[in-house]
Structures
1.
Amino acid sequence: MSFFDGIPVAPPIEVFHKNKLYLDEQAPVKVNLTIGAYRTNDGKPWVLPVVHDAEVQLANDATLNHEYLPVLGHEGFRAAATALVLGENSPAISEGRAFGVQCLSGTGALRAGAEFLHHVLGLSVVYVSKPTWGNHKLVFTRGGFTSVRDYTFWDAENRCVAIEKLIADLEEAPEKAVIILHGCAHNPTGMDPTKEQWKKIAEVVKRKNLFTFFDIAYQGFASGDPDADAWAVRYFVEQGLEMVVSQSFAKNFGLYNERVGNLTVVVNDKSVIAGFQSQMSLVIRANWSNPPAHGARVVHLVLSDPKRRNEWMESIKAMSDRIKTMRAALREKLEALGTPGSWNHITQQIGMFSFTGLNEDQVNHLISKHKVFLLSDGRINICGLNTNNIEYVAQAIDETVRA
Ligand code: LMR
């Protein structure tokens, strides 16, 4: 007899499970297009040179120690992260209406935001895009939200954003529902609303008094330009919308396992900030008490030094350029093979992922026959492609689609 008798086995977390299946695979030729992490053209993880330099400097800085950070995090990092997403000249910052809360990567920022919105503001209804990142629903459910709903995002037939249905779903949402919006490089589809479409979304969010929760995990990584990738967030701020924005520095700094994130908060009346920060301190205290310092110090050092910041900009440009090259190459090869279907969506999409349109049977076939590992919804991590395996992957997709 044990307290733990009868615990049901939960389903595996797909990205980590598929990544492990790839690692355990013994076949001599195999390709990993699963978990969202950058790879070089040699298929290797990449420590950004500027991150390495910053780490060396930190390691040699005798003034640093391992004392606790404040509950809300490293002040320089919080300010730098907030300015990165809102823009250096953001009126919300200069008017004292915006601030950051250091969190454990994007997931921690989502969780802290969810708990705050539920336990402090009493909000219980959240809408996520259909489809969305595999963790959104779990984070909000465990954060206390009792109603986790979908808004239509994807038009599978035309492989684009289903803007009319999206707007219709938001029109039906009750007042004060929380709307999760992917700031750029939508995961998993890789397709973002156009500026005109974002304007329509902002209009309905404002008119219906919905609450904006941006999730921006790919700023700078998506297009190579951090300002361009933050356009939607900044537009919503310009429209006078209050919001929270979860930021991750996993992809754009390659700091995946350092769990560096920030929750940027924009309010209309700065007199609410003292109450907000005191209540958020209790949310953080009950979760991780205070955040780790290393990754935050690295990001702060890089963003606050113009020379290092330029080096970082060169690295994000290099990563996004390699992704664009691989998108073009995959499309070109599928078209050259005459693979049934249209493949122009691969180059219309942006960021790490492509929603290929392959169905679950085709995904299973690609894995079992060709050892090309991808997610069951057909999402591939474009970073897993390189000049050595692209021909193989294109041939494998071609054979699969014809099978
Ligand atoms: C992904 O979508 O593959 C990444 O964001 C990793 C994760 O935690 O799911």
2.
Amino acid sequence: MSDHSRSQSAFAEARRYIPGGVNSPVRAFRGVGGEPFFVERAEGAHIWDVDGNELIDYVGTWGPAILGHAPKAVRDAIMEAAAKGVSFGIPNPYEVEMARTICEWIPSVEKVRMVNSGTEATMSCIRLARGFTGRDLIVKFEGCYHGHVDSLLVKAGSGALTHGQPDSAGVPGAFAELTITLPFNDAAALKTLFQAQGSKIAAVIVEPVPANAGLYLPREGYLETLRQLCSEYGTVLIFDEVMTGFRLARGGYQERCGIKPDLTALGKVIGGGLPVGAFGGRADIMNQLSPEGPVYQAGTLSGNPLAMAAGLAQLREMERVNGWAKLEELGAEFEAGTRAALKKAGRNYVFQRIGSMFCLYFTEGEVWNLADAMRSDKAGFARYFHACLDAGVYFAPSQFEAGFLSLAHTHADLEKTAEIVTGALTA
Ligand code: PMP
């Protein structure tokens, strides 16, 4: 049994000063039981906790670490930028370079604004869509998580799901009433809703590949139907690509599926590990933002030079090494290892993967929406999670989170992981 005494005392102290001992709920391990470990340092695909235990990491700081932890290109860029000043609140060249890169890479983005988190990006998209259309209703999908925005904490995924609190206290009923939720992948339900209320709907926000209730894919034609209905009724279609942007392709999932949303929310990979988000899209909609237009949106630290430099360095490095093709290869290798482990252990569980994102559901059959995902054996997952962690592999501490591969994962890492996964599934 490895030593966890330092993590345990750090957590005891943290709980005295921080609610639940954490600055974001899912970190508290409530979905799997036990206590979180505290990190000492992280490099490449590995993490060392404060007790000296080494782990192979498949969380990657929840998505941003696409090159692995602390990549040299990103560290150098931060140091270089910091030497010139850490924040200005004055326009700076980094911001323009970032905006130009996003507009060139993401097919639907003509103009973009930087913010400090994914939550800010989706929140701003919603306000902008309402301002642009003059309508109030918004539509989201069960199990999709778009950050802790009041109007979007309705039947939300991620931590909100793990903790059994899909509807947060503190969200006025009047806000929630303006949010309509639908099951994902149900085209008939979409059509019925639009026929009844389409002309009152400001926006539909969707994770085109939902990855906050595990991971499931859109059925063929589903996103096309969504695009078509939004166009027909003058509703703003928002793709939340905070997780999938720059990860599933250079231009996000929209490049792969060939569908152009009106607005896109971005985060995670774009910041290289620093606190960054962005939202962008059609110029006629983006031009409604202050100071050009009447929709207010602002930020003291938005476009921060360190964050821009870190993000740009990460994006350029991905492009330089053609990271997306390499991640696909690593993903396929990881998938083969996991499927072999399932076979050896005699389990028929559902393994889903797209590129470098994956989820092992502790259930059989197919998973296409939240209801399917909820069939999972959460206690079984918790035992599996802890067995992997004890053996040196860190997966996300919840059945309802996706896993991430990075360019820093080696064949040796994947081989060792497959062994550990086999052992954990067999036990
Ligand atoms: N949208 C999606 C799809 C996300 O996965 C997340 C966070 N996991 C967010 C929005 C919110 O981002 P942040 O935590 O940076 O506010």
